[in-house]
Amino acid sequence: MLEIDGAEPPAAQIDTDPLVYAIGAQLLPHVATTVVIAREDLPRVRLALTTRTTTTN
C-alpha cells in the first residue's frame, strides 16, 4: 500500500518483477507520483509520501 499525506489513494501496482516493486498514484489531474523499490527492502520500509508546496523567488 502507498500512503500519501496519511491517506491511501487508489494506486496502480507493478508486482511482477522479481527484483523490484513499483506503485504509483495520481495526485492531481496532471500530477502523478511513482515509487520503485528493491523487493528485498520492502519488509523494512513504509511506502509513505508527503506533499509539500514550494515557492520560487
Strand and helix layout:
Elements: E1 3-4, E2 12-14, E3 20-28, E4 31-38, E5 48-49
Parallel strand pairs: 1-5
Antiparallel strand pairs: 2-3, 3-4
* % residues in beta strands: 35-45%
Helices, by number, come to 0
Side-by-side strand order of the widest sheet:
2-3-4
Mean model confidence by pLDDT = 93
Q: Based on CA inertia axes, which overall geometry fits?
A: elongated
Total number of β-strand segments? 5
Q: Give the biggest beta sheet.
A: 3 strands, antiparallel
Tell me the radius of gyration.
Answer: 13 Å
State the share of residues found in helices, binned by percent: under 10%
Task: Return the structural class.
Answer: mainly beta
The termini sit apart by 36 Å
Task: Write a brief structural summary.
By secondary structure, this protein is an all-beta fold. It has no helices and five strands.
Q: How would you describe the overall organization of this protein?
A:
The protein is mostly beta strands and 57 residues long. 0% of the residues lie in helices and 42% in strands. The chain contains no helices and 5 strands. The chain has strands spanning 3-4, 12-14, 20-28, 31-38, 48-49. The strands form 2 sheets. It has a 3-stranded antiparallel β-sheet, with no helix packed on it. A two-stranded parallel sheet has the order 1-5. The termini are far apart.
